[in-house]
Amino acid sequence: MEGSKKQDILTMYRRIDELDLQLAKFFAALNPFALSQQQEQLLLLFKRKDSWTSTEIARTMGISKSAVSQVLKILEERTFIKRRKNPANLRESFIQLDTNGVAYLRKMDEIEEQLAEEMTTILDEMELDIINRSLVRMIDRFQELHRS
What we know:
GO terms for molecular function: DNA binding; DNA-binding transcription factor activity. The chain is mainly alpha-helical.
């Protein structure tokens, strides 16, 4: 990789870190939920779909079923998630949000809505399109690298 392009990518990483620090100030409103990073990541899966199995969670998060089981146990005790037996396979449970999980994601949605409203004042459609396409390409590439 040529030096200038590599330096630009390293600068981009530093800007992403700075953006993360700035966003953390807004998402501090979620601190009262007292979740670990892994617990937060698991709950974020429910933005994709309403019901998961532990096998699906393990595969998606790239962690062991044992680790998923430990995280789910804590989240269930704290009423963030609930389990419902799969009637077609009683050894399997469907995992869904419970009261605190719904409240957590609702608060996150409020924060994201506020931030989106703010970003509409500084980014035009073309800039958003470029950012989103670039992020998708980066995510896809990192997923490929992680699989190999």
